[in-house]
Prior knowledge:
- This protein is an alpha/beta fold.
- The protein has a single domain, classed as Aldolase class I (TIM Barrel, Alpha-Beta Barrel), CATH 3.20.20.
- About 30% of the residues lie in helices and about 25% in strands.
- The chain contains 8 helices and 11 strands.
- The chain has a 9-stranded mixed β-sheet, covered by helices on one side. Strands 9-10 form a two-stranded antiparallel sheet.
- Helix 3 packs parallel to helix 5, helix 5 (about 130-140) runs parallel beside helix 6 and helix 6 crosses helix 7.
- The radius of gyration is 17 Å and the shape is globular.
Amino acid sequence: xxxxxxxxxxxxxxxxxxxxxxxxxxxxxxxxxxxxxxxxxxxxxxxxxxxxxxxxxxxxxxxxxxxxxxxxxxxxxxxxxxxxxxxxxxxxxxxxxxxxxxxxxxxxxxxxxxxxxxxxxxxxxxxxxxxxxxxxxxxxxxxxxxxxxxxxxxxxxxxxxxxxxxxxxxxxxxxxxxxxxxxxxxxxxxxxxxxxxxxxxxxxxxxxxxxxxxxxxx
Length: 218
């Protein structure tokens, strides 16, 4: 499998912020979001076998879990079905939340699922509500939370749709302001106003910026 990078660092997003994780970044994605700042193309990637990854994980037992990230790791379920049964740390899946059938193939090996809600105003994509709904239906069997990146273009309709979708599955929703370098793209006032709009519909909503950018870690 071609892997873009493997490194140990601090989780900077979502409810597990601050935990040390082993990150495995897979190449390729089925979406192309306007705000994406992650290098996940196959250029400069390296080939790893299942045994290579097992060894690397075993050498990093001080980590809380193994983060499968990308790109979109669920594009590589055949490889994951070989690797994950032998992974000696809990598995933390970071995904764009659109590939429910692929999740079904490997969900038995996953402990945590961080699934995006792709807001059209921020991603530049067509709405993915139906895909997210199917994904959450599968993912609710594990510890699942949703993450939504937003900017000043977020609409009341998007807020309502995202909040009600998370309410349907009773999962935590983490709002993440889009960043411009190390600085949020919206003001503190706008962040709190947006959070308040969500809270009126769904109380299990939190605002957590990308903390790893503030503390300057990878």
